[in-house]
Amino acid sequence: MRTYNLPVLLFIMLTATILTGCTNPLPYESAEQAYAAGDYQNAKDTFHHYSTTDNPLRYQALYYEGMSNYNLGLCKEAAKDFSTVIEFSKNRELRARSLEGRAKSYLKMNTPNKAAEDYLTLLNMYEDIFPVDQALAGIVTAKKQCGDASGAYEYEERLRRDYPKSTALQGSSGVGSIWRVRVKRKYLTKPTAQTEIDKLKNQGFETALFREFSQGGDRFVIQIGAFASRTSAQARADSAHALGWDTEVVRR
Hints:
With about 250 residues, the protein is α+β, with helices and mostly antiparallel strands.
């Protein structure tokens, strides 16, 4: 058996310690600290080690790797990270947070239809752990980005009715507005109303179509604006009136 004198043995032990320190990952807490400090690149690098190895923190690390990518503007990579967590993690809270992260990534990637689907999933399947008002506000934002004003209105009204004090009301244009500008005429059929909507859109107005239910039969109503102040609503109504539209300002 080969023997070493003390200086050589100490040198070998020191070298082994240095090499081991070079290959061991940074502790998980260092990634959390980097993320909290806004150092997303270093946080991502360390989270990546934990997200690609078999350990109890794997999917939590992958969620934060996704959030790091999102904050770095790498939304495609972030959406991929969140999708993996959603598919494989057994932690419902982590899946819910990943759905929100993916929805926000989709909005930045200009794919609002997918974002709306994720927010709807949060609303319908995770209402016990994800704030309903935030899910509703997310749907409103996504549908407005899609150009689906009528679809946005349905959830906007629910948000405003059920959560009037929610901070989410301040997060989306139009959400929480109480003054509406409408065309006074009510239409018997949707195609007829749609013809008028097309005219308004060509004139530069943002429109939405709603159905009113009554004993005398359903009617379709065209809205051309929702505002937080009556002054702003009246200005829009005057603009439409100048182009020949008979409008009214109503408070909802």
